Amino acid sequence: MEIKRKITLSIMLMGYLALCSCEGPEGPQGVKGDQGPQGAKGETGTPGATGATGAIGLQGATGATGAAGSPGAPGITGATGSVGATGPQGAQGPKGDPGVAGATGATGVTGPTGPAGSSGTAINVIYSDWFTPAFVDWQKITEKSYLYSIIETKVTQDIIDKGIVLAYSRQVASGPAYLLPLMLETSSGLTNYNVSVALGKINITFLELLNVQGKPVTGLQYRYVIIPGGVKTRANIDYTNFDEVAKAFGIPK
Predict the structure, then answer these.
(1) 166-225 residue pLDDT tens
(2) CB half-sphere exposure, 168, CA atoms < 13 A
(3) Is 86 domain-assigned?
(4) Domain membership flag for residue 202
(5) Is residue 103 part of a domain?
(6) CA atoms of 168 and 194, how far apart (whole Å)
(7) 135: CATH
């Protein structure tokens, strides 16, 4: 009985499957149903990785320099303040009465004798002013020697025999004076200046020592001093030092 029932169910199942396998023609599309309710919002996705930094672009060209602005106008100078008025001078006080004269003091001890004053120009010592010969005043003797002669009547035979005639030379008024004979080295050679005397004359001579010719230097100043034989000379005087000689005999410089 059980087996018969199973067979019957199997036949029924097979018939049902056969019916289901037979597909009929497609029916018309049904009416579109209403939109269903919106579903819930999904969770936010994980952020994507940051993209790589792009390459730096080329630097743009330097723009032209703008024109310089015009300078601002100078400020106005402030006015100088006025000078304050001078205050009035105070009144002069009254003159005081003269005091009583004091007693005359005792006479003081006599002071020591002061040093002797400097002596004036020595009697009969003769000196000239400083003078500067021009080149035309020199007499040419040879190609290398010249003579400048001065008329001086005080050069007597007694001066020649017993006195002293000194001559000095300097370049400028404020410079040192040198006693002749004098050697001068120049760019052109070596020269000698000397002094000699004759009756009524004082001669200054020039001589070039190295070259075959030469000329005296222009611009040199000269001065002579005549010391007669009767004037007491001083052994401690340095006659090459004109300042010392001028002091000793009272000769102005």
Answers:
(1) 999 998 888 899 999 999 888 778 999 999 999 999 999 999 998 888 999 888 999 999
(2) 24
(3) no
(4) yes
(5) no
(6) 10
(7) 2.60.40
For the whole model, what pTM was predicted? 0.50
* C-beta of residue 148 within 8 angstroms of C-beta of residue 136: no
Residue 170: inside a domain: yes
Range of the domain at 235: 126-246
With bands split at pLDDT 50, 70 and 90, how would you rate the model's confidence at 118?
Answer: very low
Q: Tokens 């005397």 identify what position? A: 197
Distance, in Å, from the CA atom of 44 to the CA atom of 40, rounded to the nearest integer, reads 12
- Cβ 200 vs Cβ 149: under 8 Å: no
> How many structural domains does the chain have?
1
* Contacts with 132 (C-beta within 8 Å, 6 or more apart), sequence order: 219, 220, 221, 222
The rounded distance, in Å, linking the Cα atoms of 109 and 118 is 27
